[in-house]
Amino acid sequence: MKRLCRSESDRKLCGVCGGIGAYLGIDPTVIRLIFVFLGLASVGVVFYILAAILIPPEDAF
After folding, report:
1. Are 7 and 18 in contact (CB under 8 A)?
2. How far apart are CA 61 and CA 23, in angstroms?
3. What torsion do the CA atoms of 16, 18, 20, 24 make, to the nearest 10 degrees?
4. What is the structure's pLDDT at 61?
5. Nearest CA to 48 among 60, 30, 36?
6. How far apart are CA 33 and CA 44, in angstroms?
7. Which element (helix H / strand E) includes 39?
């Protein structure tokens, strides 16, 4: 069973994009680009901060 968690190995800031990419089975760079485009509208920044707080780290399981 796959669980959504922040990546400890594929991280640039908090590991949110690496964790989402691993969960969805796509390249984390695509997720990072989506966050950059959403960040231009300030929605991505808020979502990233919330995700960093709510998504548990990899070592929590």
Report:
1. yes
2. 14
3. 180
4. 60
5. 36
6. 10
7. helix 28-39
